[in-house]
Amino acid sequence: MINLQQCYMFEHLNEEQLKKLGSFANTKHYTKGSIVFYEGEMPTSLMILVDGMLKIYKTDKKNNEIILHMFKPTSMIAEMAILEGVAFPASGAFETDGILVTIDMEMFKKEFLTDPDIALIFFKSLSKKIKYLENVIALNIVLDATSRLAKFLYDHAENKTEIKHYQLAEHLHMTPETLSRTFKKLVTLGLLDKNSHGYFIKNKEGLRVLFKQ
Questions:
Q1: 213 has a pLDDT exceeding 60
Q2: Which of 30, 57, 105, 114 has the fewest CB atoms lying closer than 10 Å?
């Protein structure tokens, strides 16, 4: 069982409270590619991602995945659907091996949701997701493919975490072919360079100009 006090939303709980919470919490291990839930299913447990990367996605009429968000630890998953008692608005699957802590929601509401500190954490988590959704909408309506890639590279310039080509294409809502052409365009513009290890930024402020116009 994961030490629940390591989860930021429970770090203020005392030993007795943690023991009570642990009595209706479970740890579930998943392998890469495992489906956690499908769009339209009804949630029964509060889910906390404590290890791995979980993608939230929808599927269009052509069976193409549209990535809405990639969650990293430690994150609450789909808490709006759980709190409201409505069906999951999208599907969730692991991009890597991972671990979820699942907590019986009825017991959690009864024993802990009246705690002001925990309630505030829920509100903050929901606020972050709303802001992220606003950014996704703006990114895909206002910006073209070149501007989207430029913004992603600018925002993640200091992040050394590698992301696979197809994952980046999904994240930016474009085909891998369009992504390849866009990378080449940024190289031609002198904003990126390429070596045996991949692309790297030559002109960060030049990238910024592309999505701030």
A1: no
A2: 114
